[in-house]
Amino acid sequence: MSWLSDELRKIRLAELRYERLILLFGAVLLAIVMLSPQGYMRQFSEWVSGLGTFGYLGAFLAGMISSFGITVPPAVAVLFVLGSQFPPLAIAAIAATGGTLADLLMYGLLKRRLAKSFVKMEHKHPELSKWTHRLGPLIVGFIIASPLPDELATGIVAALRFDEKEFVIIVWIAHFLALFAIASTGSILV
């Protein structure tokens, strides 16, 4: 039976290695496309600004891309404009759902990797454990509601091994508050 566990361990290691290779390849490809002389960054910017013409679907997609550091500014611009065209409460709720879905996907990718590192840290510094679990939801909510990249907050949540339901609630509320402020500002100023 030990041969079976050895084989499963080899498969898991191979999956991890290829997963990281695929992520690296994807990141390099994205960087090449965005920085190429053909102006793909301009085309991407035009595509993002075109999301405003999709109404509520555009709000959902803008919410999704607002979760990733590099795409926050164009997503904010789209939500700002949509807030002037539609009820800000609805725009914020729909965009928060899109952002939460994107963060949940990131959470699934990071949970496996960061949980092991955090367990090691807890064993070395048990006094830190109770404070990180108490303050974790507040820190995560603040990061998600701020212009900081959601990857940071998602990594913290994954490392702290939050329950997925708890994660979704905290993230949705934080997204909603931030995006409601943006959409409301758009409805007032535009």
Topology, pairings included?
Layout: H1 2-35, H2 40-50, H3 56-65, H4 72-85, H5 88-124, H6 126-145, H7 150-160, H8 164-189
Helix pairs in contact: 2-4, 3-4, 3-5, 4-5, 4-8, 5-6, 5-7, 5-8, 6-7, 6-8
Q: Biggest β-sheet, characterized?
A: none
Write down the Rg.
Answer: 19 Å
Strand percentage: under 5%
Shape label: globular
Number of strands: 0
Could you give the distance between the termini?
68 Å
Contiguous low-pLDDT stretches (5 residues minimum) are none
Provide a count of the helices: 8
What would the average pLDDT be, to the nearest integer?
Answer: 76
State the helicity in percent bands: over 70%
Count of distinct structural domains: 2
Structural notes for this entry:
By secondary structure, the protein is an all-alpha fold. It folds into two domains: 1-35; 48-189, no CATH class. Helix content is 86%, strand content 0%. It contains eight helices and no strands. It has helices at 2-35, 40-50, 56-65, 72-85, 88-124, 126-145, 150-160, 164-189. Helix 3 runs antiparallel to helix 4, helix 3 runs parallel beside helix 5 (88-124) and helix 5 runs antiparallel to helix 6. The chain is globular and about 55 Å long.
